[in-house]
Amino acid sequence: MIAVLQHQPETGLGRLEGHLGDLAVDYEVVQTGETLPDPAAFDGAVVLGGSLSADDAALRPARRWIRGAVLSGLPYLGVCLGGQLLASALGARVGPGGAEAGIHSVFLTDAARHDVVFAGLPRRFDVFGWHGDRFDLPRGAVPLAGSLACAYQAFRYGGTAYGLQFHPEVRPHDLAGWRDLPGYRRLLDESGRDWTDVELELARAANALDDLAAHLLERWLGLVAGAPSVREGRPALASASDRATA
């Protein structure tokens, strides 16, 4: 069972929902504004994006939950704000660094070539970005990707915790739902981009982004399947190949 931490209803799983369904992976969506369940009840955690800042007081319980979960060995995949929360929970600085909105290229580090999740991706590929804040690396973290405008686009902490600055999950109709969020409208104004232009970029990149989301999620779920169960005596999540042959 995967815990999906969601901060705002407008920022959901997006295309990751379909991939989880295709892989028959059970998950539970948990709202971070509510009482958070024991991390030991889950095999892994996916933490979504949102228009809040990582240091927002409303996210203090989520930061504590994330720190305890990751330090206990729970596999973690954080998207944009989820990646920033991972960095913040592990003691790294997260703060303003210039708005980045729309499709742009990221470049993998040498370490990414040997990383279980990122191996097999091109050294340069396009992602969808939508952020005004950015993270420094926690001590001991491994940088995996960066862009011309943002030094750290992805990192790994330990063997199974990943923070992404970009959004592999966002589809055009997901983006349309962000128009009503003041923080997202303000971010786009700061970036100097136009909604229509960004929507068209995202639509044109849909197939490539779908492939990217599937690659990252499936590789990360492979780590989840192989990780020691956080809850004593509980078998780890079955791998996709195990489910296919069961």
How would you summarize this macromolecular structure in one to three sentences?
The protein is α/β, with parallel strands linked by helices and 246 residues long.
Topology:
Elements: E1 2-6, H1 15-22, E2 27-31, E3 44-47, H2 60-71, E4 76-79, H3 81-89, E5 94-108, E6 124-135, E7 142-146, E8 154-157, E9 161-164, H4 172-176, H5 182-191, H6 195-204, H7 206-226, H8 240-245
Parallel strand pairs: 1-2, 1-3, 3-4, 4-9
Antiparallel strand pairs: 5-6, 5-7, 7-8, 8-9
Helix pairs in contact: 1-7, 2-3
Q: Describe it for me?
A:
The protein has about 250 residues and is of the alpha/beta class. The protein contains 8 helices and 9 strands. The protein has helices spanning about 15-20, 60-70, 80-90, 170-175, 180-190, 195-205, 205-225, 240-245, and strands at about 1-5, 25-30, 45, 75-80, 95-110, 125-135, 140-145, 155, 160-165. A 9-stranded mixed beta sheet has the order 2-1-3-4-9-8-7-5-6, sandwiched between helices. Helix 1 (about 15-20) packs across helix 7 and helix 2 packs across helix 3 (about 80-90). The longest helix has 21 residues, at about 205-225. The model is unreliable at about 230-245 (pLDDT under 50).
Task: Output the keywords.
246 residues; alpha/beta; 9-stranded mixed beta sheet; 8 helices; 9 strands; globular; disordered C terminus
Strand order, sheet with most strands: 2-1-3-4-9-8-7-5-6
Strand percentage lies at 15-25%
Characterize the largest beta sheet: strand count, sense, and whether it forms a barrel.
9 strands, mixed
| Residues in helix, % | 25-40%
Overall pLDDT score: 90
Radius of gyration (Å): 17 Å
Q: Give the total of beta strands.
A: 9
Count of DSSP H/I helices: 8
Shape: globular
Uncertain stretches: 229-246
* First-to-last CA distance: 18 Å
| Helix/strand/pairing category | alpha/beta
Helix-strand string? EHEEHEHEEEEEHHHHH
